[in-house]
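Justification of computing resources. Each target in the renewal requires a structure prediction run like the one illustrated here; the chain below, 196 residues long, is used simply to show the kind of job we budget for.
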Amino acid sequence: MPVTAADDVVVQRDPHGLRDRLDLFRHLDVGTRRRRVTGRMVMDENDCRRRELQRPLDEDGLHGITGLGASKIKRYGKAFLETIARFAPNAALDNRLSPTVNQTLALYLAGVAADEIAIERSLDVSTVYTHFAEAIEAGVVTSDAVLDLDPSDVDEIHAVFERLGTLDSGKLGPAHAALDGRFDYGILKCLLAELA
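Resulting C-alpha cells:
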C-alpha cells in the first residue's frame, strides 16, 4: 500500500518541527485496490494537535487520544510513535505544573496567542492568563513574554498594587476596581505572580 505525503505542508506554530511532521499524516494519500483514503480520514487538525501536545510514548498512549481508534492505530500507530520519538519536547514543559496548565503553555510556546488558546481549549481568556500566572510563578515564563501590555500599563498596575497593598494581601478585587476594570483579572494575576 503506497503512502505519500504532500510536499507543500507548512505549519508555522511548531518551532521544533513535530507539528510539521504530524501534519504530514493529515495529507496521506493511501491507495488500496478497493478504495482511496484521504489524509483527512486519517487525522484531522484536532487529532494532529492532540498528538503534538500529548506525545504518547507507546500504543497504550495512542489509545488515550480521542479520534484515533484501533484501526488507525494498527495502520499508522508505529509511524506516529516513530515521528513523535524523533522530536524532544520543549524543556519548559518539564516542570511540576498541572497537565492542563502545560497544555496551555505548550500552545503558547508553539506561537498561539492567548485568545486563540482560549477558543481552541474552550476556556475563558482569563483562565488562560491564570495558567500563564502559574507558569510565571514557577519561573517557566515571564509576564513580559506572555502579556502584550505597554510598559506604561505595567507601571500603572504595579503602582496600584503598591498603593493598595496587593502584594501583601493577594486580593485582586480592589486593584481591578481601582483600574476601572480595564485589565482582565488573569492579566493582574500574571503581574502579581511575577512580583511574588
